[in-house]
Amino acid sequence: MIDRRTLVGALEVSRLADWVIVERRREIGSVDERTRLRRTEARQLWTLTVHHDSPAGRGSAHITVDAVDENAEAVVDQVAALARASIGPTWLSRPLAAPARVRVEDPALAKREPLDAASELVKRLVRPTEVVATATITRDHVYLDTRAGLHAEWTETLYRAELLAIAGARSVVLSRDARHRDGLDLSAALVNASEDLKLLARAGAPVAGKCSIVLASEALLHDGIGVWAAFVSQADAVIERQGLTRYRERAPIMPGADQISEPLTIASDGALDFGVHSVPIGDEGDAVRRFPLVERGVAAGLGLSPREAALRGRDANGGVRNLVVEAGSWSGTIDASMGRVVEVRRLRSLSIDPYTGEASLEIALAVDHSKAGTRPFAGGSLRIDLIAALARAKRTAAVLTRGAYKGPQAVLVERAELIA
Amino acid sequence: MPTDVDPQVRTYLREAVAKLRGAGFASAHVLAVSRHRVTAAIDVLGAGVARGQCDGAVLTVRDREGMVREHVTNDLSRDGIASAVKVLAGNAREASVDFGRAPAAPPIPNPELRRLPDAQLLARVGALAMRDREVSSRVVYSAALLDIDDATVWSVAPGRDVVQRLVRVRRSLTRVAWNGTRPIVSEATRAWRGGIDEQDLSQAEIVAAKDNALLLMTPRAFEDREYAVAFDPAVAASIIDVAVRSLLTSSAARRPEVARRLAIGANIIAPLVTLVDDPTAPGAYGGFQFDDEGQPAAALTLVDRGRIVGRLEDQGRGRGRRPGHVGRVEPAPSHLRVAPGTFEAAALVDDGFVLEGPLGTVVDPASDRVVIAVARAHERVAGKRTGRVFADIELVGELGKLFASINGLSKQTQSIGLRDELDGQPRWRSIETPWLKGRGLLRARRRPT
Which end of chain A is more exposed for a tag (fewer CB within 10 A), N or C? Predict the structure, then answer.
């Protein structure tokens, strides 16, 4: 049998240069209306990160153990062998910083079983249309120990809801993640879906041509953080070190990005209360911090793991986590008097080139606003240079908090082209 | 070396089922897995072997009203399973249950993977890496990999006590070279179920991996329009896999658009196409002897000469599969097989493009819209390659129209094994397909700047 005490004991005699153990005691409760299933899980998981120093450099290894019937010495031998086999440039672990003070546990779950909470969530759904729901609630009790003696423990909760909304011959799929129940905001999501289903029922074909586009919240945050993911890969320290990013720190993210009236500011905030990627301390023992990615149109920071931080002589920050985008002053009102505006409400798919930020957006539902009136349509594609488009975009003053995102509800991008 | 699971585990599982029956549930099933993963790799930086273990037991009961209740644990000890039973059945007493005959122990592969030392694994990977002797200074990264998922799965229910050992092996070789400002990644992979040395990459596949990485792409702009196209088996497999998982399952059929468009009996695919999901195919990477609900494996025809005749269903209908054998059950394919045609693969397209190197396929189940991204499009004119190769091309359109346009299948087929993960748990499947020929709108994925 494996436990934290025997693992620590085995690591202490292993003569490794540094190590971090994270134990997760995981409880999951889920309810699936499709299969009429109520499911619970109780698992214990360990992740080990170890570093081995030799005259040739430092080797690191990271493994996860998802079994109780293991032998601690054997696990440590394995991970140490792996670290010895992956020697790279030398770097030294920096002193550990204090864990972030952040709330990641829903207080409402403190005295409830995840399964009961998931059942209630599904039962109390306000359903403006037919809905097939799946709700999963995870509660992790996390214990972290490091070779330097730092010990931290906390409880984190995660709600996940997947909904299929159906009206007549049309359907849409919704997915929401949140640290606490109210963060899911499922009622608003279903009302929005119900409206979109009505629009889909009378949607026509797309008409190609030049237009301005409004990315409404569902399209803006497609599959999580949506179009903002373009900035996450640009802040990857490894890609930046290899010279593969589009812009470098302290340079404008595009020519003139720092000269426009409301320059773009984006921060990564892993210490945002109830952010789905918030955590006090990372799996490598790195304290999680808020740091800027883009400040007034200028690239300002990178997500730094302990290794990348040490190689740069800086402090680790826990990597890019929740994105906080500064709101703008646009009211969100669509004015088609000056030309055609396409309001993109839902996407079928979004693919972003991690190196350049060029993106292909496949439209599931949009509304064409022109002087002649409004017309919903389904289909069509947009090809956008997302870095440039979002740097120039007008952002709403109204702020939306959803999953790993806090920022404007919608953005307006001028000078785009719709491909039918 | 991995820790072996307690040999008495089947006894504990039987006790669990007996207690669940004793609690009065209409049906009870326990699925347990002990899974070891070994990955041996050699790349330009060094060599290493990673080993991981994942255990799990899923206890499933159905009550008289048809509600299903499941509990999952990763503790396969007697106490661990007993605690899991308690969650569902409290302190119920064991009922008398007939489990039928005890199954024979699954055959032990030779060599026994769990006893194979790191050095022997690395020797095999080293031998694979050494088979490509023509070194090019343009190749900036190369790697050889041997990836083994070795799972022993027990399924115990009243009247049924079965066990299977599924050893899934992948060998692959990766080459990366720069083309302009972009890295071009090319990979040759062979995946199967069985012994570690049963199959290997052919010399032609190894050479092709390097040649594809080194291909110089045509710099001129690609003209977006409809063309005759041929999909190589890797691209065809990517399309078939995504299409089946998002359209031909019982969960996909919950969407009214899918149910209407792909009703049983619908003729929306070219009559040349017959598609079968066959978990019993020998050596198939995605195959199994029983599914994760304990149902015995049997072939299922999904498309018969262009007509939809079946869909993949869970809940006791033979295709209930769990990610990593412990995740939530979902209807999913095992080994999809497209019947071969009569054409020679090399002569499928006279004028058009041969699409190679799948980068991803997206199907929107609601609208049937498909986007198939590929790494390379080779131009052919008058039955011959022109030498022009365009990078990063995508085919866009309606999946139904694309399948209806299929007017040729090659005699030759290839089997492609796929492994992805859902919530950290692996899903395995394979697709055996010929080259496919059809028509579609091709366009460049990146606009010239």
Answer: C
